[in-house]
Amino acid sequence: MRTPRTARRTGVALAVCTAAGVLALAACSDDGGDSGAASTSPRASAPNTSDFSGEPPSALASSAASKKAEVKESASRAAASASQRAHDFEASVSAEVERNRQEFTRELDKADGKGNAMDSVSLTGKPLAETDNVRALVVNITNKTDQKASYAVRVDFSDADGKVVESTVVGAKDLDPGDKAQPLAISTEPPEPHLTAKVAQAQRY
């Protein structure tokens, strides 16, 4: 029995389509016509933006700039805070030093003559080369008693004629028996002419 011509054409077309696979797209007709449909190219579909994650580049750049600005601002605030704390600490120390100086001065004003602790205090000079030409002396204070005590000391700086040109007050508070303290007596006078320093008063209280 002869195979109809139409059937043969259909079989050939199917075979061609099957062999081509994904390498070419062709319209294969099985309607029995002699001419096939025109071949077409696949049309790209729009991406499904719902599958995207993150931010577009412009938003990412903006976000990065914002984060950088936040970090910079945070660092600036931290630096300002540290500076303020340092200033406050320095002011606190200065205030404490001044309160102590006033206390030592009051005790020396109540002392009888040179005071009751002259034998507990001595001076040690510091070379000008070590103090950037500032005249400074170490005031050595030793609690030689068997009880806790505080000490107030006045150091006089005198010129070659023995005239006192400057005095400074230092001290130590709440020294235990046998303990020592070494505050500095600093002169604001220039290094020349030479001045002589001595303990003028020392009061234990």
Short description:
With 205 residues, the chain is an alpha+beta fold.
Could you please describe the fold and organization of this structure?
The chain has 205 residues and is an alpha+beta fold. 34% of the residues lie in helices and 23% in strands. It has helices at 5-20, 57-110, and strands spanning 121-125, 136-142, 149-158, 164-175, 180-181, 184-186, 196-204. The strands form 2 sheets. Strands 1, 2, 5 and 6 form a 4-stranded antiparallel β-sheet that branches. The chain is elongated.
List keywords for this structure.
single chain; 205 residues; alpha+beta; four-stranded antiparallel beta sheet; three-stranded antiparallel beta sheet; 7 strands; 34% helix
> Tally of extended strands?
7
Radius of gyration: 49 Å
What percentage of amino acids are in beta strands?
15-25%
Structural class: alpha+beta
**Mean pLDDT figure:** 78
Q: Report the order of strands and helices.
A: HHEEEEEEE
Largest sheet: 4 strands, antiparallel
Unreliable segments of 5+ consecutive residues: 6-29, 51-55
- Counting DSSP H or I runs of 4 or more residues, the number of helices is 2
- So what's the overall shape? elongated
Q: What distance separates the N and C termini?
A: 140 Å
* Helical content band: 25-40%
